[in-house]
Write a structure and sequence with these properties.
mainly alpha; transmembrane helix; Brnchd-chn_aa_trnsp_permease
Length: about 230
């Protein structure tokens, strides 16, 4: 199979560019948290490369710092990332004709941002080769994430609070959410899902996030007219 379309790759890279500052801030938060929890550079880098998921990494770091059993740490990370199964099921159809080795690599790079921007770009008329756009979005995210988590670990407490890097976490998701609310089902899904996730923030294993996702989709399908 030929290399991904470079034009589509550049288009994806341009689309993700506005999100890079917020992603960088999120990465700094995770890196600082890892340093405060006593993670070594190798441990922090290993976690960031292997997991590559901000919310799961933060939860893992907090649980390890609290001395939680390994089984609890792993189960928590898995539960938080269960939403990736829904993303995969939704976007997989666009990659039916792509070689398995490419699909495996792209699955590793799947994030909230890569999914949201790609699925919006593909719509009902996807490019003949969807790899270019997806990788144009996903690869810069991966690179920035790895660099900024290391910087956050090394810089630690020297990062000024006035930078407001912790605000990057909700900012990333708001930047994705608002443009996606194009119709009644998507708006309903966002409202129900966000409300349930916020109300369930104190549930163990971050189950509030998963519950919000499930109920948001359910609301869109049943009340929103079945167009989701």
């Amino acid at each position: 199979m030929n290399a991904p379309d470079p034009t589509e790759f550049r288009r994806g890279a341009r689309a993700v560019l506005p999100l890079i500052p917020a992603i960088a801030g999120f990465g700094l938060v995770v890196g600082v948290a890892a340093g405060n929890a006593g993670f070594s550079l190798a441990q922090a880098v290993g976690l960031s490369v292997f997991v590559f998921a901000g919310a799961s990494q933060l939860a893992t770091i907090e649980l390890v710092d609290a001395g939680a059993p390994l089984a609890v740490v792993v189960l928590t990370a898995v539960v938080i990332n269960l939403r990736m199964m829904m993303y995969s099921a939704s976007i997989a159809g666009y990659f039916d004709d792509i070689a398995e080795r490419w699909r495996a690599g792209m699955a590793y790079l799947l994030t909230d941002q890569a999914y949201a921007l790609s699925i919006s770009h593909y719509g009902d008329d996807p490019p003949s080769d969807p790899r270019g756009y997806y990788l144009g979005v996903a690869l810069p995210l991966w690179i920035v994430w790895q660099i900024t988590t290391v910087v956050g670990l090394l810089a630690g407490a020297s990062i000024p609070e006035k930078w407001g890097v912790t605000f990057a976490v909700p900012l990333v998701f708001l930047a994705l959410l608002v443009p996606a609310m194009k119709d009644r089902p998507s708006t309903l899904a966002a409202g129900v899902g966000g409300s349930v996730a916020a109300l369930g923030a104190g549930l163990p294993l971050n189950l509030g996030l998963l519950l919000g996702a499930v109920l948001g989709v359910t609301a869109a399908l049943t009340i929103g007219g079945g167009e989701a």
